[in-house]
Recover the amino acids of this structure.
């Protein structure tokens, strides 16, 4: 006689320990196996795109900080590149290097958060790996504080350059960080990467085939873990990325382990980029002498995109000749990466669901905008 | 007075209890004096376990914090030692909610039922020479039977809460606990065979060589199995906080939550005490006649530290992986250990029908080699599908001057 079971629908979130902010999943379970999943979001909607239409071009930078609040620098970068394309200006070389440098530091910090919470969701209760990640992230945030006085919502980049040049004591501090961090990273990798339990929990779990990933417009580490070396820093170099050498780590299976592995490897590559920036940077101006209130020509459109830690982050700006954008559309990687939720989760168990969601590394500030 | 205890009685052997017994015997009938002495010891034990629980919560938080580069609670009292008291006051003054849809009786009964096994098991644990509440001749059986009662309480809590996360937790907890009963019971048979008795007192006395050396496989299986039964990492699926919020105790708050936490930590303490008695020679050590309690506490602390250490290090397994680990790996090891021990005891003990210290050392040698081979072989079998990590991509060397050039 077949054993009859009833499907059970559970709301995971919006208040749940591991939904990365206020994110809700309506999940139907058969036992512990997921049969249906429906992501529900919008709890963190703040109307950033509309607010941007009410502020002048420089003021909007502060709004972009609040999009993906664990990688504000890259948000600034994407927006500033869009505005520069709109105005048809190029920032000075030193500013480009500074931007590249802080963007890579931000990528390290963001990946540390992503990896740390991924491991937390795997159930390292004491939070040991998470705290290892936070220890290193704190150092990066301290560096940001030296640059601009803020740690999270930095607003360091401006259209036409950066807010101000790095203070003199920033470079020794960066050097000290570069001395310490590889050791801390090695400690973290030693703790987790070859852990047998981590392997059985992540290897082959929730694989994302490349065709699905491409069809769903997935970008960033999630796409690269599925096997495509697609990185805007390589495909369409912005700022100083055409001056530095780095490799694009690519996974093979697109499973949870590959996503973790790609992030860890990108941290190594970012470190290398930071080293090269420090070696190559030359003295000079860091900001174009632009008017206080920027105006673009009427009818001009521009799309600025970068490779943010989560994927392709784009700002599409339309000008009507006024002091603020006529329209500001944000292409946020987290939102588009969420489209593969169903492919990732259906057929897997509850415990895998949380981990797979963590491996996509979404940020609700960016999803809901 | 005329009350006299038999010389073998454990109350008679313990000077403190005999003193209580004699005093009470002067004013009350003998059975009442006996009851008074027993109750006095029970009072000591129950409070000892509960205070130990408080200290363990503090120790676990402190040690986990140190593992994770944090400081941990250090505000109240020296080294934050009074933190458990503050937590207790907080929990006592909170409203003790019962969800409207919950089954009131079962919901409120579950925490109490959960605490009981933890307190009952210590009755048979010998803390030092002649210090045990009861020297049951079926001690091991009693420990196993009582500790498996926790399943019932977990399922009651999860089922009565009418919460889906709690139900998940309860179902997982029951599945794990039932799977791990089997290897745990089988692993203890080897110990019983060696000691020739199920009494924990006799088992401690039989450990001329600590049994974790003589029975390494049984020690490994029992330790792992007990971690699973206690919902300790990496087997804490029943309350996996990142997945199902808090598992079976999601709906519990206030004093009921406090009792559940006490049950959990108390269970860890009593299980560690059982491990110390069965495998680490209990209170044995230099000057054991006087310092037995000290040796016992030191060994207890060491075992608890290992529990906390594991918790700070490992991620959590999935429920089906935990079951596979039990049935495919631990059960095989327990059976190997059982057969090996039976053969060794049969051939080594000779006509005297007792095992000498030399016999134990011989067995320790054989069993340690056997454990290494068995764990290695079965581990390899079980990890066949897990590939090795591929080598990392090369990190390109920076093109220009060394890092840190001030500009």
């Amino acid at each position: 006689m077949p054993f009859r079971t009833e499907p059970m629908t559970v709301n995971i979130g919006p208040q749940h320990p591991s939904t990365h902010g206020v994110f809700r999943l309506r999940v139907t379970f058969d036992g512990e196996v997921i049969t249906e999943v429906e992501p529900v979001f919008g709890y963190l909607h703040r109307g950033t795109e509309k607010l941007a239409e009410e502020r002048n071009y420089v003021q909007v930078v502060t709004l972009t900080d609040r999009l993906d609040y664990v990688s504000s620098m890259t948000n600034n970068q994407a927006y500033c590149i869009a505005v520069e394309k709109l105005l048809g200006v190029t920032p000075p070389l030193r500013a480009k290097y500074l931007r590249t440098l802080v963007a890579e530091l931000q990528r390290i910090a963001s990946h540390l958060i992503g990896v740390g919470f991924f491991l937390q969701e795997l159930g390292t209760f004491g939070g040991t790996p998470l705290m290892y990640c936070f220890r290193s992230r704190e150092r990066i945030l301290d560096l940001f504080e030296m640059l601009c006085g803020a740690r999270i919502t930095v607003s360091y980049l401006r259209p036409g350059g950066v807010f101000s040049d790095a203070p003199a004591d920033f470079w020794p501090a960066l050097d000290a960080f570069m001395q310490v961090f590889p050791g801390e990273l090695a400690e973290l990798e030693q703790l987790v990467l070859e852990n047998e339990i981590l392997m059985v929990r992540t290897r082959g779990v929730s694989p994302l085939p490349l065709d699905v990933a491409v069809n769903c417009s997935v970008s960033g580490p999630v796409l690269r873990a599925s096997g495509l070396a697609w990185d805007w820093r390589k495909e369409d170099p912005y700022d100083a990325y055409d001056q530095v050498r780095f490799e694009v780590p690519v996974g093979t299976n697109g499973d949870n382990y590959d996503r973790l592995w790609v992030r860890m490897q990108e941290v190594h590559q970012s470190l290398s980029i930071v080293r090269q920036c420090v070696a190559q940077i030359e003295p000079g101006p860091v900001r174009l002498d632009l008017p206080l209130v920027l105006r673009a020509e009427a009818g001009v459109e521009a799309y600025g995109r970068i490779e943010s830690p989560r994927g392709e982050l784009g700002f599409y700006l339309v000008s009507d000749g006024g002091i603020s954008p006529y329209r500001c559309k944000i292409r946020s990687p987290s939102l588009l990466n969420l489209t593969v939720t169903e492919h990732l989760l259906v057929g897997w168990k509850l415990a895998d669901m949380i981990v797979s969601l963590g491996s996509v590394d979404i940020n609700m500030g960016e999803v809901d905008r | 007075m005329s009350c006299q205890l038999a010389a073998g009685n454990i109350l008679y052997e313990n000077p403190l209890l005999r003193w209580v017994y004699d005093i009470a015997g002067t004013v009350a009938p003998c059975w009442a004096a006996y009851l008074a002495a027993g109750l006095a010891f029970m009072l000591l034990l129950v409070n000892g376990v509960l205070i130990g629980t408080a200290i363990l919560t503090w120790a676990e938080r402190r040690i986990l914090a140190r593992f994770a580069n944090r400081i941990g609670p250090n505000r109240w009292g020296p080294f934050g030692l009074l933190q458990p008291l503050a937590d207790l006051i907080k929990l006592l003054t909170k409203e003790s909610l019962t969800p409207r849809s919950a089954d009131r009786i079962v919901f409120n009964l579950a925490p109490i039922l959960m605490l009981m096994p933890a307190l009952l098991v210590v009755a048979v644990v010998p803390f030092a020479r002649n210090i045990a509440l009861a020297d049951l001749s079926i001690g091991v059986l009693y420990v196993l039977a009582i500790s498996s009662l926790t399943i019932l309480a977990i399922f009651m809590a999860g089922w009565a809460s009418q919460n889906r996360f709690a139900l998940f937790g309860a179902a997982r907890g029951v599945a794990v606990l039932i799977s791990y009963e089997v290897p745990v019971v089988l692993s203890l048979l080897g110990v019983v065979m060696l000691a020739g008795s199920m009494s924990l007192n006799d088992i401690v006395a039989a450990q001329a060589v600590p049994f974790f050396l003589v029975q390494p496989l049984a020690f490994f299986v029992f330790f792992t199995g007990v971690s699973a039964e206690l919902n300790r990492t990496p087997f804490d699926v029943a309350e996996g906080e990142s997945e199902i919020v808090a598992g079976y105790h999601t709906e519990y708050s206030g004093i009921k939550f406090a009792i559940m936490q006490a049950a959990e930590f108390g269970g860890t303490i009593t299980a560690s005490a059982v491990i110390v008695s069965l495998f680490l020679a209990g209170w044995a050590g230099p000057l054991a006649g006087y310092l037995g309690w000290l040796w016992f506490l030191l060994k207890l602390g060491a075992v608890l530290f290992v529990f906390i250490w594991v918790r700070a290090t490992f991620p959590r397994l999935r429920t089906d992986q935990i079951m596979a680990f039990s049935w495919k790996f631990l059960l095989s090891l327990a059976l190997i250990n059982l057969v090996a021990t039976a053969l060794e005891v049969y051939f080594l003990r000779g006509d005297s029908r007792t095992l000498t210290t030399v016999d134990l050392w011989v067995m320790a040698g054989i069993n340690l080699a056997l454990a290494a081979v068995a764990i290695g072989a079965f581990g390899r079998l079980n990890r066949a599908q897990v590939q090795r990590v591929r080598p990392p991509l090369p990190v390109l060397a920076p093109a220009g001057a060394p890092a840190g050039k001030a500009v």
Remarks:
- The two ends of chain A are 52 Å apart (CA to CA).
- Chain A touches chain B through 64 residues (CB under 8 Å).
- The longest strand of chain A covers residues 298-308.
